[in-house]
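User: Hey, my collaborator sent me this sequence without any context and asked if I could get a structure. I don't really work with proteins. Can you help?
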Amino acid sequence: MHASQGRSAGLGLALASAFAFGGSGVAAKPLIEAGLDPLHVVWLRVTGAALVMLPVAWRHRDLLRRKPALLAGFGLLAVAGVQACYFAAISRIPVGVALLIEYLAPALVLGWVRFVQRRPVTRAAALGVILAVGGLACVVEVWSGLSFDLLGLVLALGAACCQVGYFVLSDQGSDEAEPADPLGVIAYGLLIGAVVLTVVARPWRMDWSVLGGNADMGGTTAPAWLLLGWIVLIATVLAYVTGIVAVRRLSPQVAGVVACLEAVIATVLAWVLLKEHLSGPQILGGAVVLVGAFIAQSSTPKAASPGPVAGSEQAPSEAELSEDGLSAGRTAT
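Assistant: No problem. I've predicted the 3D structure and written it out in structure-token form, which is a compact way to encode the shape of the chain:
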């Protein structure tokens, strides 16, 4: 009885996390279109979340001594890299497309396993990669000569590559007697990401007056400060925390699959709120990307596993660390 209730609660939290992450792009794009630079939006998001997570960072301050490389890598790739590339991408291409491309990350992890770690992968895992790439071809409509903004596509792929770092780093030290607490890693990743982004984004050049005005969401006006509050509190802090609790109540495999719904949620929200309509082939391609991501993610082994990639094994997903992802979308997604 209690186990069933715990699983139901965990599933609800995982869905809440996917919804929160999926809404980040929908809230950020109107701010970018209102006049804020994508890097400035990323800086506001990461810095705001880092301030909220300061008490958690203080509680886990021993991580600075124990895991400095892990914290630095997580801050640079999983926080600054993913979100900067993703937000820059959505300033040029639709939110749903950017996030679907970012979800090539589970397939790219297999490339890391096969060609960097030089470990074999199963046919199921390879099938996941083929499906994801084929679906991506439909999403960007390659038959029309890449009508999408090429730089936007490259930036979205950059977010996917940074997401790979999220997956790889999330497995570091997981087999140790005293592994790093995910909440502490997230808190310090946000702090380090905020420092890095301060240097890169130069927020003192930001047009702060935009935050006092309104932004357009597909014909509907919304206060800019409210959208920013959503990005910081809901799409970052709440998304990470609910993701972590969900993983503790569910298996990492179940939580990871639910987290992949972030791409679907983002696409639907962008359709409804931003009027970003996708064609039939793009919708079909997006579904294929997700199926390929599911297969690839569920077929990636733990770093300590000596055998081939098995369909029942899985690398830590963005949801498992938080969760990302780490997106990202998740982006950062």
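In plain terms: The longest strand covers residues 214-217. You can pass these tokens on to your collaborator as they are.
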